[in-house]
Amino acid sequence: MLYRKLKDYTLKDAILFEEKDKQFLALKKMYKIKRIPDNLYLFLIIANALISFQLSWTGENYWIEFSNWDWNKYKNKSSILIEFENLLKNWKNNRRFVNMKLKRLKKLLFNEYNLYWQTFFNYFMWNIEFYYRKMNILAEDLANIMSQNKKAKTIVFAVKMFSYGARNVFWYLEKFPNTLIIPLDSRLKKLYKTYVWFGSKKDMENYYLDLSKKLNIPSLHLDAILWVNYNKLIKNNCVEI
Asked: Active site includes 185?
């Protein structure tokens, strides 16, 4: 049973694993060296996370490439979009589906966010700590802007990467809300099949939520533990009863 293999892990362990993540370390270095305004730094992280799919190489290398870029001169919506367009055409790690990704960035930058005709960009720039304390609301707002389900992999991933950056900005850890579900990527699907054999997507969501509750580790933090232990866990072909 997967729970028995993970029962000795704690939230503290999950945080330690996260802080050794190459993506976390890339964003930490970016914050210390680039001296970008806090709100722009966090917005760029979300924007980049929302187009981090169908990569040409590993996610770790892509985020290192992103963090090494000089973003200091890109402070308004139009300049940010133009720069992302240039980068998507020239970066080594993210050259696929460029037009689709630019459409996603346009939604994020220019779509109206609320009844006051604000864009999400304008609202976000003044409310970064609110979103850090209420990451479930960040997921809902991103899902609405992007016309996606808040459980969608890119939405949840954007919240996760935002959290990585926010820990550098605010110097305290805000736990992920229990309502944020772990992104069901190929690794988790394979683990599920290894330990359970079969089930619907909804069954899989409930399985990982139940595991999270038993371990008392929020689902999105549990992801780090499963990632670090994946190869060891996948070798076990026992079926959960």
From this structure: yes
